[in-house]
Amino acid sequence: MPSNAECAALFTQETKEERLAALRRELARFAAEVPAPTATDYVNNHIHTIYSFSPYSPVGAAFTAWYNDLTTAGIMDHDSVAGADEFIEAAKEIDIAATVGFDGCKWALRPSRAGASITRTRTA
Questions:
Q1: For residue 113, what is the DSSP state?
Q2: If you ran DSSP here, which 8-state letter would residue 100 be given?
């Protein structure tokens, strides 16, 4: 059984399409060699990916969450939702629930003094 680092290393290809193709290959291999993980009530909705500071691609994060028996997983990158589509596609392939969001380190939303509109205000 691969470690979490080995799981992440399976999905280091350059493009989203290549990583998703690798996911499909690995899922086929696992289906033939390894029993599927048992779904639990474990959830982690705060996983970082290569779009902030983690070595995990969005596909690698989804696969590793599934491999570790999580029922729901979510990515939460700093100031970015760039991995959202890839993560959601991978979660569909794996059949786990997915959430996406971002840690808003550089920007905050607050009501405008002019009324009900929302303006972006730099916080850092």
A1: T
A2: E
Measure the CA–CA gap between 114 and 14, rounded to whole angstroms: 45
Q: Parallel, antiparallel, or unpaired: how do β-strands 118-122 and 107-111 relate?
A: antiparallel
Q: Structure tokens of 92?
A: 């569909």
- Angle ∠(77,108,98) on CA atoms, nearest 5: 30
Residues in the chain with pLDDT < 70? Answer: 1, 105-124
Check residue 87 and give its pLDDT: 97
Give domain limits for the chain.
Answer: 4-122
The contacts found for 45-49 with CB under 8 angstroms, 24 or more apart, are 45/72, 45/73, 45/74, 45/76, 45/99, 45/101, 46/74, 46/76, 47/73, 47/74, 47/75, 47/76, 48/75, 48/76, 48/77, 48/78, 49/75, 49/77, 49/83, 49/87
pLDDT for 108 = 54
Strand order across the 72-78 sheet: 43-47, 72-78, 97-103
- Helix, strand or coil, per DSSP, at residue 87: helix
